[in-house]
Amino acid sequence: AAGVIQSPRHLIKEKRETATLKCYPIPRHDTVYWYQQGPGQDPQFLISFYEKMQSDKGSIPDRFSAQQFSDYHSELNMSSLELGDSALYFCASSLESAGGPLETQYFGPGTRLLVL
Amino acid sequence: QKEVEQDPGPLSVPEGAIVSLNCTYSNSAFQYFMWYRQYSRKGPELLMYTYSSGNKEDGRFTAQVDKSSKYISLFIRDSQPSDSATYLCAMSVERGSTLGRLYFGRGTQLTVWP
Q: A89, A105, B39, B59: which has the fewest C-beta neighbours closer than 10 Å?
């Protein structure tokens, strides 16, 4: 079965640079969630999109922005990178409808970002 | 205080043992309960998904939800070395028509030795 695809898998950036992370949800899934997982930490919710509209916002820095496109893929844009942004960034997708969620969240393999 | 509490372990058991993993939570509005397995440097892999209270069984895995006690459990029967991983509980409140963000426990590191 198709899974969530994330690219790139690894990314090394310098401080103050920008980065763009991409997420391709499972086919037919209409909702995308972004999470950040620091070393030894549990995943922390950043932001989510349902049918291309932002549906919820968590502890996402103002330096970060995200969007969901017409083909349901999503991009997380990170600017003015800081050392503390080094983490695993996961995208998860689900199928949800006006009648309530039909499937739970399935996670991608993550993008490992290292800021030097 | 985190909304979801989970003993980080580590937990070490012999092959064939029954493993019990648990989480407690404080938000009575949680309706969806999940268990994920995460291998080192990999994405969380969904194991079990339960709505509201009750039990759910899938092969060697059984998930239990007790909303009255705000307590969820995952049991692994006949544990195998390949079960060695970090197990994360997660839960959410339905938000409009969407599942809503997941709130995770810290994860329990499990090692099953041959």
A: B59
